[in-house]
Design a protein that fits this description.
This protein is an alpha+beta fold. Helices cover 23% and strands 43% of the residues. The protein has one domain. The chain is built from 1 helix and 3 strands; from the N terminus they run βββα.
């Protein structure tokens, strides 16, 4: 899987990564993770 840039957000002093995945029927799925490697693992499980 190619590396992508993920949006980094901070809420209540905690930083996390955010990515919005769109399925073929244009349903969005929001994915949150604490690290880039965890994000890529979550995305890989959904695809």
């Amino acid at each position: 899987m190619a590396r992508k840039t993920y949006k980094k957000k901070t809420k209540n002093g905690t930083e996390y990564y955010f990515f919005r995945l769109f399925y073929k029927d244009n349903r969005p799925k929001d994915i949150y993770a604490n690290s880039v490697s965890e994000m890529e693992e979550k995305i890989g499980c959904l695809l």
